[in-house]
Specification:
Pfam family, one: FMO-like
GO molecular function: flavin adenine dinucleotide binding; N,N-dimethylaniline monooxygenase activity; NADP binding
Shape: globular
Cofactor: FAD
Helix content: 25-40%
CATH class of the largest domain: Alpha Beta
Organism: Streptomyces griseofuscus
Protein name: Baeyer-Villiger monooxygenase
Distance between the termini: 48 Å
CATH topology of the largest domain: FAD/NAD(P)-binding domain
Length: about 500
């Protein structure tokens, strides 16, 4: 980076969120920006997760940008290789590479109150920016549990998001720790190669059949020749998922029929009643993310697979010990134990106007106005921020809504003119969060009887959006200046127009 480089906008991350932000900035006529990427290529989680069997559980035509439709998806549910290639294609088509700084991991972000800008320290040097858009995403930093004795394990250890392709699993005794979305893809992909596979299952997931197929050459030709057909396909997929939201957010009891279908899915593939019992969840379907696979249960029923219905609690040399005392001798451990979602590491590196980090500000739980801005952190926005996750649809829909909000945020700064910053009012953030949490109380994620990564350490759901993507798009279509303090000049805050403005918050979009 050039010495003393200054940009209007610095975007962190080059996954769907970061690339989407870069394209949207271009479309808004803003070219004075950089994308800071810690790796050496784009792709985010679809670059990092290259484990065997890695694929998306959202249909391909819905898991893509509306402004960059892809008529060439090879399957209805695409694999990691094709999704990463799509992101590479978007990067090149929109000419984004010149503005991406690869190998530039952000080490520290600190707010300069006097000059109303962010100082950014990266592994490639320092720069400043008027506005920072953090698009690091919640699935970027793997979480490995603190298991006693793990450091002394003599074999191979790696996380699913850091797969070691140089390690040959053939004939090895392998432990798979975790039963989330990654694990149910990895297990059937490696089962036939390994000598023995031991699955440490703390909580069984609900798994539904994956209705996947190849998209025919005729379909792809039709989508190329008549782009409207791609839009119609996307619209149909979106509409079906919008109709499903009510069951997740307001009427969880309606999911009972889906639960019966899931139980039949287990029964068809697993004939051993003891194993079937271990694989049947005791919580309402949907409380954890519903997983999709046609091969997971058949793989678990194979003779070289053991299912330990208890979490890993200790490692003694090459012996793994479960919480129920079950032991297994293994050569390699694969952790499919998720990511730092409610305690994102980037939050520890962001120092706001009051000299505290974003992590400290979120000590009682993550919260951000409309999932984008936190009080005390002027001109700092998150993409896929608190309570913007989805349990049944495509995150690209939520990302694009947040990009709408980002675009209007920058327009408002232009209208205000001069050296200006916007800082979310604490009252507005609190009001928004209160409405979200009130709606969350009746959702399946809070009432379904499970413990999931949607919940933070205090049991609050700070991850998922308790409504439709339409509602969220409406809530983020524009910035309400009444929800912000305007900071001008040398850190001087604009006085509110009336006493009520200090707590003003337009929260009708999230009314119960």
């Amino acid at each position: 980076m050039a010495e003393h480089e200054h940009v209007r906008v610095a975007v962190i991350g080059s996954g769907f969120g970061g690339l989407g932000a870069a394209v949207r900035l271009r479309r808004e006529g803003i070219t004075d920006f950089v994308v800071l990427e810690r790796a050496e290529d784009v792709g985010g989680t679809w670059r990092d997760n290259s484990y065997p069997g890695c694929a998306c559980d959202v249909p391909s035509h819905l898991y893509s940008f509306s402004f960059a439709p892809n008529p060439e998806w090879p399957r209805t549910f695409s694999g990691q290789r094709h999704i990463r290639a799509y992101l590479e294609h978007v990067t090149d088509v929109f000419g984004l590479r010149p503005q991406i700084r690869f190998g530039a991991e952000v080490k520290l972000l600190s707010w300069d109150r006097e000059n109303l800008r962010w100082h950014i320290e990266t592994t490639r040097g320092a720069l400043t920016a008027d506005v920072v858009v953090s698009a690091t995403g919640p699935l970027s930093d793997p979480k490995v549990p603190d298991i006693p004795g793990l450091d002394s394990f003599p074999g191979k250890v790696f996380h699913s998001a850091r797969w070691d392709h140089d390690y040959d699993l053939r004939g090895k005794r392998v432990a798979m720790v975790g039963t989330g979305a990654s694990a149910i893809q990895i297990v059937p992909a490696i089962q036939s190669q390994v000598g023995r596979l031991t699955l440490f299952q703390r909580t069984p997931p609900w798994v539904m059949p994956r209705v996947d197929r190849a998209i025919s050459p005729a379909e792809r030709w039709l989508h190329r020749a008549l782009p409207l057909t791609t839009q119609l396909r996307r619209g149909l997929l979106w509409g079906i998922r919008e109709l499903q939201v009510q069951a997740f957010t307001k009427r969880p009891d309606e999911l009972g029929l889906v639960e019966q279908l899931a139980k039949r899915n287990i029964a068809r593939a697993v004939k051993d009643p003891a194993l079937r019992a271990r694989l049947t969840p005791d919580y309402r379907i949907g409380c954890k993310r519903i997983l999709l696979s046609n091969t997971y249960y058949p793989a678990l029923a194979r003779p070289n697979v053991d299912v330990v219905a208890s979490g890993l609690s200790e490692v003694r040399g090459s012996t793994l010990v479960a919480a129920d005392g079950t032991e297994a001798e293994v050569d390699a451990i694969v952790f499919g134990t998720g990511f730092h979602v409610t305690d994102m590491p980037i939050a520890e590196r962001v120092v706001g106007a009051e000299g505290i980090t974003l992590a400290e500000s979120w000590k009682g739980g993550m919260q951000a106005l409309r999932g984008a801005t936190a009080a005390g952190f002027p001109n700092f926005m998150t993409v896929i921020g608190p309570n913007t996750g989805l349990g049944n649809s495509s995150m690209i829909l939520m990302i694009e809504s947040q990009l709408n909000y980002m675009a209007d945020y920058l327009r408002q700064l232009d209208v205000l003119g001069g050296r200006t910053a916007l800082d979310a009012r604490p009252g507005a953030v609190a009001a928004w969060n209160h409405k979200v949490q009130e709606r969350m109380k009746r959702t399946v994620w809070n009432t379904g009887g499970c413990t999931s990564w949607y919940l933070d350490a205090s049991g609050r759901n700070t991850t998922v959006w308790p409504g439709t993507t339409t509602e969220f798009r409406r809530a983020t279509r524009q910035v309400d200046l009444g929800e912000y303090e305007v900071i001008r000049g040398a850190g001087t805050r604009q006085a509110p127009k009336s006493p009520d403005d200090a707590e003003a918050s337009r929260t009708d979009e999230v009314a119960a």
